Amino acid sequence: MDTQQQLQQAFSDALGIPPEKITDGLTYNTIPEWDSTAHMVLIAELENVFDVMLDTDDIIDMSSVAQAKLILQKYDVSFA
Amino acid sequence: MAETQTSLQQLEALSDMPVYGIAQADKERLLGQLLVSLHAHHQQQCNAYRQLHAEPLSLVAGLSELPYVAVRLFKLLDLKSVKDENVLKCLSSSGTTGQVPARIYLDAMTSRWQSKILVKILQQFLGKQRLPMLIIDCPASHMSGAALNARSAGIQGLAMFGRHHTYALNADMSPNWDAIDAFCQKYQHEPVLVFGFTFMIWQYFVKSLRQQGRTIRLPHGHLFHSGGWKKLQSESVDNATFRQNVEAVTGIARVTNFYGMAEQVGTVFMECEQGYLHAPSTADVIIRDCYDLHEQATGEQGLIQVLSALPFSYPGFSILTEDLGTLHGTDDCACGRKGKYFSVQGRLPKVELRGCSDTAAAAL
Question: Is B141 touching A (CB cutoff 8 A)?
Fold first, then answer.
């Protein structure tokens, strides 16, 4: 699995929606599955999958899948 | 809509300034401009608000000229400044059986600002890192009714600062020793975050530990708590007693109280090293006489009016609470934070029980 697939799988597992629905444009609080509770589950999942420690600014800034990629890149996770 | 954009831009600017670095004279101007725009925004978006406060507004003397909404109106009226289809969630404040809960309507934007500002304020005390977190409550899945809503919202805000979230209580509010022991064993040598509502920490944690003759060791822990002292006052437990007992049974010496309410989530007034509550850059307090509501001087007790720059989806930027407080000074707290600092003495007598921890008390 490449990092893009890992990211999609992590979002899919945390939010409980199919991986194919995880697109860059998917945005926090626009679907019922990605609410504030699921957001913390997502953060924990991304930390596990990519072995990073996200801080509170990252949690606030992670408002979309595209943003998640940008944030993970700060921690040396690269997306092709 | 112009007013909405204006207030948003003003909020952006204000949120970039130091949380506790704005002198009161500057805050009166900056926060004042913002709240005047918010007033116009709510006049346009909320019929009930326009009926309450139809007058246009310009502040001459300062923030004390802002109109306010009595906190119980959020129970009596559906105060909403967004279209129904844009309501993300409705937060109901704590209210026990027979009491009507307040209804606070949140849209995505207001909700986002609440999280953003809460994080900014708490970062002043915790830094940006997240810590292993022990929550002195039962998991949200075990809560029911209005308690779920207000309590879980409070927990969720703080949970952003935690990792490996561990709930210390079972559904029946008894200590979950397996969870507590495992947490303490794993993290006793490192900084941890502990959070709970004041009364629940006292009733279900401190007292339980004492009754069972047990202690835990979290010497690097930092406890944050909120939710009201009313029930503890009847047991003559003040802040100092609370701290001493917490330290005696947990080893936690760093204890920080804060004042906030479901009607203004995201806006919290944190206790400083001197024991005073401080208004952050995006909020303020005004103390008013209980009888004629004129602004009280420093040192005089009165009703607390809370101002917050965050409520866009409901007209709650200026609320007259039923809490009693005293302003202790402005810009000159020994802790170095600018702006107003105050203390809360409790609830106005003959007011229904409310507050996250007090409703649990009523269920006893």
Answer: no
Return left, alpha or beta for B278; rule: phi > 0 is left, psi -120 to 50 is alpha, else beta: beta
Residues of A in contact with B108 (CB under 8 A): 29-30
Residue B137 confidence (pLDDT): 94
Give me the residue from A29, A37, A54 closest to B156, CB to CB: A37
What CATH homologous superfamily does B2-69+265-347 map to?
A: Luciferase; Domain 3 (2.30.38.10)
Domains contained in chain A, number = 1
pTM, to two decimals: 0.92
Give the pLDDT band of residue B156 (cuts 50, 70, 90).
confident
- Predicted confidence at residue B354, as pLDDT, reads 54
Has domain B115-259+356-362 been given CATH number 3.40.50? yes
Give the tokens for residue B267.
Answer: 């806006």
Q: Does residue A43 sit within a domain?
A: yes
Tens-digit pLDDT profile for residues B319-352? 999 999 999 999 999 999 999 999 999 888 765 5
Which residues have a Cβ under 8 Å from the Cβ of B112 and sit 6 or more positions away? A28, A29, A63
- Residue B195 · residue B155 · CB < 8 Å: yes
B184 within 8 A of B132, measured Cβ to Cβ: no
